[in-house]
Amino acid sequence: MTNHMKFLDEVLDDLREKKIFRELTVIESCQGPRVKIRGKEVINLSSNNYLGLNTHPKLKEAALKAIEKYGVGSGAVRTIAGTLDIHKKVEERIAEFKKTESAILFQSGEIANQGTIPAIMGRDDVIFSDELNHASIIDGCRLSRAEIKVYTHCDMDSLEKLLKEYKGTGKKLIISDGVFSMDGDICPLPSIAELGEKYGAITMVDDAHASGVLGRNGRGTVDHFDLHGRIDIQMGTLSKAVGCMGGYIAGSKALRDYLIHFSRPFLFSTSHPPSVPASILAAIDVLENEPEIIDRLWANAEFFKKGLKDLGFDTGISQTPITPVIVGEASLAMKMSDMLLEDGVFGQGIGFPTVPRGKARIRTIVTAAHTNEDFSIALEKFEKVGKELDIIQK
Length: 394
Ligand SMILES: *Cc1c(COP(=O)(O)O)cnc(C)c1O
Prior knowledge:
- The protein is an alpha/beta fold.
- It is globular.
- The chain has helices at 7-17, 57-70, 85-98, 109-120, 135-144, 156-165, 189-199, 221-224, 253-262, 264-268, 275-289, 292-310, 330-342, 372-388, and strands at 34-37, 40-44, 102-106, 126-130, 147-151, 172-177, 202-206, 233-237, 247-251, 322-328, 345-346, 349-350, 360-365.
- Pyridoxal-5'-phosphate binds next to helix 4.
């Protein structure tokens, strides 16, 4: 290493000293309710694979068929020669599913945010952003160079105060996670729609954790609150509950046409391999035809959440299958995570900057694919480790 790269070791040594340095956890099996880590089978409470769709036979079959027909790569960016009929078809299908005029596909949810916010907002504009919004929203806002006004988490008085105070003439955008990824609470979207209407602001919701989870057949927060036609931009991911990969923006036809011309990742990065839109199409079929999988997810989530609460853990304000076990210091969360893994339960420890300081946690997500046996083992281990670390009473 050259001398001018020495800062890497200095920073990393500091993380090691604070006991928050992490190695990546390598999964040696498919991403399922149980996974193999370092040769051992463990219960997996750390994926976003809410519905277990990543291994659904219909999705796998669709991907394989697409590989046979199209091969494994798309060969170009969308505006040059990388739009295959299957990319167009999946966008039409997403729009129909979301009940919007149009939809546009991105390589990931992160890229959908980074590609959309700076395309529609610029230097003279203002963005009103929830303080706990996802990093990809924050990055998208920063890339836009618009003024950013952060409102208190889900606090509509705080949002309205900022809207009222703003005297500029630029475009206004209110943006929020639909379901907050670290706490599992749902944003007050009906009030956001009202404030957008009252103050002439564009409204955008990030449904990464609501896609496939909330609303009829997993249509997301707009459907959950019956706000069709009242939120301008719906972003979602196809990488979590939908089991595949990708992000989308659903809204008006003009929005899609505009993004095709101005969204930089759309213009400058190659489109998905054809197997990806093929498996997304199959996933939407499953959401429409097998909604009992979503019911099972919610029943499992309620059961596990109640189990953790009954043991005395602080599970915060979650209203969805994302259930944090909040312990305080990051080093304690990492220790708890390591001890759980030792006992056969994989729950990732999460600390600052992903969550605020002092709010470090094990963030759990159960899936529709977990069994009662998985839950009774997991709860038993949480109890044991929680008592050993004095997080819950003995
Ligand atoms: C995961 C996530 C994203 C990014 O989605 P990917 O498809 O994984 O890139 C964006 N926003 C929120 C709120 C998320 O939780």
